[in-house]
Amino acid sequence: MHELSITQSIVDAVCERAAGRPVRTVSVRVGMLTAVVPDSMRFCFDLTTAGTVAEGAALEIEQPPGTARCRACSKDFTLADLVLLCPCGSADVEITSGQELQIISMRVG
Amino acid sequence: MCGTCGCSGGSEGGTGTRIAVPHTHPHDGDHVHDHTGPHQPVAIRGTADGGETVTLEQRVLAKNEDLAARNRSWLAEQGIVAVNMMSSPGAGKTTLLERTIRDFAGQRPVAVIEGDQETMLDADRIKRAGSTVVQVNTGAGCHLDAEMMRDALTTLAPVSGSLVLVENVGNLVCPALFDLGERSRVVIISVTEGTDKPLKYPYMFAAADLVIINKIDLLPYVDFDVTRCEEYARSVNPGLRSLTVSATTGEGMRDWYDWVAGQY
Ligand SMILES: Nc1nc2c(ncn2[C@@H]2O[C@H](COP(=O)(O)OP(=O)(O)OP(=O)(O)O)[C@@H](O)[C@H]2O)c(=O)[nH]1
Ligand SMILES: [Mg+2]
Ligand SMILES: [Zn+2]
């Protein structure tokens, strides 16, 4: 369950920045092409925030969809999974979004 | 036993060096933080209810990635090649390592980092094969990370020019996300696991530099399709190289050794 260590990293970073102030909301960006399951992340968030300044905070998860650009036909298209195949048949594609794993912001005070 | 809380650090017994992974205690009121990394500028915005929005915009795994980068440059300075070996449980990682160690004896110094949730069993096998080894027990953790890698390298103290083989925890999901600072990543799949493994675990195959198909001595007895498996793997990672071996009979191992030589 890598969501546990990932969520722990988020909570550590957030608590450090909060510098003792209570954290109300944490916003993160988890792309659809990452191996991170949002529901597991929520579960781990409640677990890892317990006893910290972020206890009871809401977790907002933004999920950018997978997109790619084909180097053969230069079209942009949606990627439902990691299979790198353009509708034109070319496998020479570049992932342009969906792999984000970032902390966006938090609300404190 | 853990020095912080006195909890059991896992099963005892066995020989060799073991590192119990430092674990955090989320319910301790006072959090300890290290302040090694530079702090990024923080944008703060007031809101109507008296709260403030603090913009962070940082990578979640920034700390691990920074540590991995430090491991990577240390290894490069020493001329050491570290290879992160990943697979599902039982694909044959330890068997492949044992044979590699025996075949490299007298040619290239090999050191091994063994990641398992519990026990020293694999480390004992590696030691018997003739290599120095550090066992990292991750406990509930399902992967190695860059901090464990740094600690293991410190304990292992590999000589310059050596080959460091890292046996990650048997798992085809979690280890793909955590950079250790290795030179290259190898995913091992055995022919008893099914041809469609690369499609079921695409993240691991997308992150790999080489796929080793192991246990080919069993091909006559299973319906595994090597060519199709390689096609599936390349559908998520077009440049992925692959080779086929039997770690028990030794068939194909020459290709693996050539690949290792090519990493220097
Ligand atoms: N027939 C055959 N059996 C193999 C081969 N390689 C490994 N095995 C067997 O597969 C079983 C598991 O091998 P290990 O080397 O312990 O596998 P592992 O990936 O290290 O396992 P974990 O550390 O538990 O994840 C053992 O019984 C090995 O003897 C092979 O090439 N052919
Ligand atoms: Mg093993
Ligand atoms: Zn196209």
TrEMBL record, chain A:
<dbReference type="InterPro" id="IPR020538">
    <property type="entry name" value="Hydgase_Ni_incorp_HypA/HybF_CS"/>
</dbReference>
<dbReference type="Pfam" id="PF01155">
    <property type="entry name" value="HypA"/>
</dbReference>
<keyword id="KW-0862">Zinc</keyword>
<feature type="binding site">
    <location>
        <position position="73"/>
    </location>
    <ligand>
        <name>Zn(2+)</name>
    </ligand>
</feature>
<dbReference type="InterPro" id="IPR000688">
    <property type="entry name" value="HypA/HybF"/>
</dbReference>
<feature type="binding site">
    <location>
        <position position="70"/>
    </location>
    <ligand>
        <name>Zn(2+)</name>
    </ligand>
</feature>
<comment type="function">
    <text>Involved in the maturation of [NiFe] hydrogenases. Required for nickel insertion into the metal center of the hydrogenase.</text>
</comment>
<comment type="similarity">
    <text>Belongs to the HypA/HybF family.</text>
</comment>
<feature type="binding site">
    <location>
        <position position="86"/>
    </location>
    <ligand>
        <name>Zn(2+)</name>
    </ligand>
</feature>
<feature type="binding site">
    <location>
        <position position="2"/>
    </location>
    <ligand>
        <name>Ni(2+)</name>
    </ligand>
</feature>
<keyword id="KW-0533">Nickel</keyword>
<feature type="binding site">
    <location>
        <position position="88"/>
    </location>
    <ligand>
        <name>Zn(2+)</name>
    </ligand>
</feature>
<protein>
    <recommendedName>
        <fullName>Hydrogenase maturation factor HypA</fullName>
    </recommendedName>
</protein>
<keyword id="KW-0479">Metal-binding</keyword>
UniProtKB/TrEMBL annotation, chain B:
<dbReference type="InterPro" id="IPR003495">
    <property type="entry name" value="CobW/HypB/UreG_nucleotide-bd"/>
</dbReference>
<comment type="similarity">
    <text>Belongs to the SIMIBI class G3E GTPase family. HypB/HupM subfamily.</text>
</comment>
<keyword id="KW-0479">Metal-binding</keyword>
<keyword id="KW-0547">Nucleotide-binding</keyword>
<protein>
    <submittedName>
        <fullName>Hydrogenase accessory protein HypB</fullName>
    </submittedName>
</protein>
<dbReference type="Pfam" id="PF02492">
    <property type="entry name" value="cobW"/>
</dbReference>
<keyword id="KW-0533">Nickel</keyword>
<dbReference type="InterPro" id="IPR027417">
    <property type="entry name" value="P-loop_NTPase"/>
</dbReference>
<keyword id="KW-0342">GTP-binding</keyword>
<keyword id="KW-0862">Zinc</keyword>
<keyword id="KW-0378">Hydrolase</keyword>
<feature type="domain" description="CobW/HypB/UreG nucleotide-binding">
    <location>
        <begin position="84"/>
        <end position="240"/>
    </location>
</feature>
<dbReference type="InterPro" id="IPR004392">
    <property type="entry name" value="Hyd_mat_HypB"/>
</dbReference>
